[in-house]
């Protein structure tokens, strides 16, 4: 935290009752009867303390001005109805009027009252009589004593309070009979007692006690309605009299059918001539709550510095916060709400006030008083009290919050949001980056405050990420942990739901709980491992390997041949033979195929699961399978999901499909190959395993496996002739041996682990072909007929075929054979093909000067037929091109080559052979290309 920014607890001082936790809910619930009887708490009973803690809102100021004007005979409304939502400040406003009247001659000493007197043109509050009718304190069935008089009705009680027996005489007969006294009697009574104020609070609570058709000492329902009607007309007719009456706003507050009926009737009566009171605005709530909960701000500069820091923060990171937070007006809101963040008030007044049980300002005070007390006790060091600061893990705070909500929210908070067992707490504890700023808990609390009241209104649910950040991030906080926390919570919590970029809590578990239950029922062998196998088969290509064997069930499933094969082992806790070695199954595969010893051991390479990641892979695969099973059940009417839940399932499947390939690559990133070295006596040393990590961050998994194998030279794609020469010298050209089967060399390289591991036989063949370009390495022959080498090549590169007859010869022996061949077949100069007269010069070369041109007589056409061995056809045809066709082309002749292929079978050709030969023949543009029936 910057040195010039101080925590709110060092700047704002709470009132003693808040600071010590000695407040009670009753202290936030004004009781006009107790104040009238002198029995209320000091905060309400003492006028000075009451106004010291009361913020005069715009609506209250207008009302008090109207009352003062009416009492002073300077206008003002005679009848004022106060009707707001539960806890909207109606009774508190009536108390303000009461204290003004009870403090004559010194009202100017009260906070915020002097400006009201000036505005009304008064030096003091006119001395006035006061009557208080509290519907919750009266019973129509029970008479009561006033000034020594037994009164039964509202009008009897009213008269006694305003003028004692003298005033009561105007309504005595009507009070005794329980009938309305009428307008005239009330006018006479008011004229005698004016100036006066009549305060009627909770009037509906009195009226709903009447049973239809039944008479009480207090009269009947209709007689009381008639009295209210007459009273409003009388107050209007008598100057310097004021009637203020409070009515609930909703039917729920009215209570039951009788209360709702009474509310409709009273609204109609007052609606004829009343003046409506303007309720508390959201901005005014800032000052109301701060004045009631906090005694003073001890450092205005520190407050200003904190507010500006937040404002600058929102402007600097404007893409991450709502647009409204970047407006200059938001700085003013920060100042007015301090030490609370404005978002707390916005959510409480905009969202929580829609709850039927939430009492607006009173409810806000009750909740925030608990919050301030707990944060103070916990030495909270935040710059502001924010939605993310709400200590919902505290029993008192949680109980106050869930009191206004439907049943079920206790479990939501305990399981997901806050407290020692909550998932958000565990996430913070596991990840120090998040835990350093309590990112998961702060995000969860913010979402709760902004979404709990909306649980039943699914159409406008949840908070977007920018508003979540507004509720939990402070200027010195990096935003990344909070953004990560949103994602983490969405993946882990049971009661958190998200859709279209919005997040909200609900008492109905999200589908994650159902998914987790399904996941626990999945079996590794029957479900998880087959899915991992499918993913691996889809992600590992066959372009480099001749065979890829994913999680083979037995050693017999991997062929023992000359093909390069990748064996992918399952991500299970298969025991290892020795520390640092592959699982035992890999060694078993290397040793045998089924019940037979494995011969071509140098053709196997292995891909293993990273031990640190294999549990995660199995968990993510099981999660994906569970989501897919849930969608399948929904598609087949085996699970009842609404549209939102189905979208959630589809999104979870999409997320899994996106994440699983990355997790797969991060898990299967260990390549292992067996290797065996020879000692100085060419005896094999003990087998060892070489391992390397695959870089799974770039390219396909198949390409990265290949890159790792080739990069470490564990598999060789290109082999130089010099290396082949070294291998031949070490293992084959020993003693008197000067030649070796080329095919045998390749096959033995596939067997012995101390030899190089080539990608395929073509790598070996290309090394041979490049070596034949020089006489430094070896010679090659297609075969041997007694002492004569067939297709002998030395110092002349050409295509070679690896057959059982092909030989690799030691260079010295090859030179001796070549010299012997030259000696046996001398060629005179200019005679490229042996003895006889010189042949013609190449076409296009003029004869030497003075020399007659070559004779033009002689053969002019050549025909040749060659029968090829089907096994060695490629090599034989290559020789025909080099030794015959090339010379004919160089002579300038027009050469045409026809290839006739005839194949006869005792059995009909398989359709696959017919299809393949026809397609390839057409591709090669065969003029005749068909099969015929005999």
Your description of this structure?
The chain is an alpha/beta fold and 934 residues long. Helix content is 45%, strand content 10%. It has five domains: 71-90 and 128-279, Rossmann fold (3-Layer(aba) Sandwich), CATH 3.40.50; 294-509, no CATH class; 519-708, no CATH class; 733-824, no CATH class; 873-923, no CATH class. The chain has 38 helices and 24 strands. Helix 24 packs across helix 25 (465-472). It is rod-shaped. The chain starts with 11 loop residues before the first strand and ends in an 11-residue tail after the last helix. Mean pLDDT is 84; it is low at 830-853.
Summarize the topology.
Elements: E1 12-14, H1 16-20, H2 32-36, H3 42-45, H4 47-52, H5 58-71, E2 79-84, H6 90-101, H7 114-120, E3 129-134, E4 144-146, E5 149-151, H8 154-168, H9 172-177, H10 183-193, E6 196-201, H11 203-207, H12 221-237, E7 241-248, H13 251-254, H14 256-271, E8 275-276, H15 282-293, E9 294-297, H16 300-316, H17 328-337, H18 342-350, H19 360-377, H20 395-403, H21 409-417, H22 423-430, H23 432-435, H24 439-451, E10 463-464, H25 465-472, H26 480-492, E11 496-499, E12 502-505, H27 511-520, H28 524-539, E13 547-550, E14 565-568, H29 584-591, E15 592-593, E16 596-597, E17 604-608, H30 614-635, H31 643-667, E18 670-675, E19 688-693, H32 701-711, H33 721-731, E20 739-741, H34 742-749, H35 761-771, E21 779-781, E22 783-785, E23 788-790, E24 807-809, H36 811-824, H37 873-890, H38 911-923
Parallel strand pairs: 2-7, 2-8, 3-6, 6-7, 13-14, 14-17
Antiparallel strand pairs: 1-9, 4-5, 10-12, 11-12, 15-16, 17-18, 18-19, 20-24, 21-24, 22-23
